[in-house]
Write a structure and sequence with these properties.
InterPro entries: Acyl_CoA_acyltransferase, GNAT_dom, YpeA/RimI_acetyltransf. Pfam families: Acetyltransf_1. The chain is an alpha+beta fold and 159 residues long. It has one domain: 3-Layer(aba) Sandwich (Aminopeptidase), CATH 3.40.630.30. It is 27% helix and 29% strand. It contains 4 helices and 7 strands. A 7-stranded mixed sheet has the order 1-2-3-4-5-7-6. Helix 1 crosses helix 2. The radius of gyration is 15 Å and the shape is globular. The mean pLDDT is 92. The site of coenzyme A (COA) has 20 residues, from strand 4, helix 3 and helix 4.
């Protein structure tokens, strides 16, 4: 698609390396999600466990700081959620989680990564823009507060 950005290789960094987390970590993931999101948008441990049990789903965790949950289906991948605790923000955790998810999705056979983000979420939009994501669609009034969702995507290296 012409709207997709050019390929930019994800770069893994050394500090606080994200590690794979399975369903046994769902309570820790829920605690981080509750710190990162307002009450109406929080995902509980049971919901996170169910998501993690979907084929192709994986979570990457920096304990006590943040996590990303994503899934790969055929040649497409999707970020389901990305959460960094307020005390850990602006120290590169979100960027490292995103880079690790991109690398794992590529290794899993994905050619393109998609995600949805509120048009009002300036922090996340800045993070995704810096990581090479570009707008490829919009869902009107998608969120409970009436804001639109932007559908962002980027190609993965090797595709
Ligand atoms: C969005 C979020 C994951 C960013 O995590 P983070 O660890 O603070 O991000 P990083 O430190 O890796 O930031 C990387 C870049 O993203 C951009 N960015 C991150 N937060 C920003 C902010 N509040 N304002 C502007 N730009 C921001 C900057 O370009 C930043 O680079 P810089 O710090 O060198 O300027 C975090 O704010 C969060 O969990 N928010 C609540 C949950 C959420 O909105 N998740 C995404 C849903 S789609």
């Amino acid at each position: 698609m012409s709207s997709l950005p050019r390929c930019v290789c994800p770069v893994a960094e050394e500090a606080s390396a994200p590690r794979l987390a399975g369903a046994e970590a769902s309570a820790a993931l829920a605690a981080l999600h509750a710190e990162a999101f307002p009450p109406a948008e929080r995902w509980g441990a049971d919901a996170l466990r169910l998501l993690l049990e979907m084929p192709g789903a994986f979570a990457l965790l920096v304990p006590g700081e943040g996590f990303v949950l994503a899934r790969v289906a055929a040649d497409e991948a999707e970020i389901l959620t990305l959460a960094v605790a307020p005390a850990a923000r602006r120290r590169g955790v979100g960027g490292r989680l995103l880079a690790a998810a991109l690398a794992r999705a590529l290794a899993g056979g994905a050619a393109t990564m998609f995600l949805e983000v509120s048009v009002a979420n300036e922090a996340a939009r800045a993070l995704y823009g810096a990581a090479g994501f570009a707008e490829s669609g919009r869902r009107r009034r998608y969120y409970a507060d009436g804001s639109d969702a932007l559908v962002l995507s980027r190609r993965l290296c090797g595709s």
